[in-house]
């Protein structure tokens, strides 16, 4: 079997634009008619033409003519055969990820198996997911957070995340004590409303200085947050490890890291216990499985990042299903996420049900693709 064509499709998402306003899909077509789906998280829409050009470049140089079963060899060629590709970051690696997950989709379809069966088999029958807590009105009225928490629990959710500290930029920065105490009031209102029925993750974006993050953690520790996400900018792992050493709140990070090499350093330095790798950015499905394995050896859990379209989301579900150290999955489905596939991801009562179909387990609805492209 050979790959004979690499095609890209840009889809326009529908409001409220969960996972971004534009989705960049990659289709790998083989000489025996199998089509594999991948997705490159589009990020900045202004860079879309450059992203498409990069995928075409990789396709022309490495992918067309390759055997999709040779995932490891193809990945290494894309990653390391050119001098300027070896340190790819968040421009190159997402393109590699999209092509790699499309290869796995082809392999699964050719063998009639879901991808998780080819990477160790189903470990989880269902996958715990977490919701976002809407923040509108919460700052002015902390009691509203308790009302929203009650609704989330009634809907079957067992965990949520919210981003209480604004503005995000500039960073790193320190927030005044008055603001931190007010965030604590919001946490208290949630605990008063639902007790321990709902885990609460602190969502941040590398906003704090090291000292500022430690101060926030100390004040919020009494509410037992699920995690403290990216307390400091992710590029300085030593400082993130310093925060981790000063708090009992688990540190979560990983959505802006790529490949096993960066995650191995993160874990070796004990900077985080919850690994938020992004399957669509860090290198693809097999690379994510390797990262999950490194995390497992450090008794760390994975909670994959999922701010993306439905194809990359489906790839994350495949990883989750076969990973013993899976903790929880971010989920931003709904709207076009559900319309795009003939049989979309099933989300019920706070859990995702892994698909049983071959490959990614998803088949595009061509009418919806035509409408949104």
Q: Distance between the terminal alpha carbons, to the nearest Å?
A: 29 Å
How many runs of DSSP E, i.e. beta strands? 13
Rg, Cα atoms, Å? 20 Å
Order of helices and strands: EEEHHHHEHEHEHEHEHEHEHEHEEH
Poorly predicted sequence stretches spanning 5 or more consecutive residues: none
Percent helix range: 25-40%
How many helical stretches? 13
Strand content: 15-25%
Shape: globular
Question: Can you summarize the main beta sheet?
Answer: 10 strands, mixed
In round numbers, the mean pLDDT is 95
Structural class: alpha/beta
What does this structure look like?
The protein is an alpha/beta fold. Strand 2 (22-30) and strand 3 form a beta hairpin. The radius of gyration is 20 Å and the shape is globular. The protein has helices at residues 48-63, 71-80, 89-111, 115-118, 143-154, 177-194, 210-220, 237-245, 259-268, 285-297, 310-321, 336-339, 366-372, and strands spanning 3-12, 22-30, 35-40, 127-132, 159-162, 199-202, 227-229, 251-253, 274-275, 301-302, 329-330, 346-348, 351-353. Helix 1 crosses helix 3 (89-111) and helix 7 packs parallel to helix 8. The mean pLDDT is 95. It starts with a strand and ends with a helix. The strands form two sheets. Strands 4, 5, 6, 7, 8, 9, 10, 11, 12 and 13 form a ten-stranded mixed sheet that branches. The longest helix is centred in the N-terminal third of the chain and has 23 residues, at 89-111. The protein has 13 helices and 13 strands.
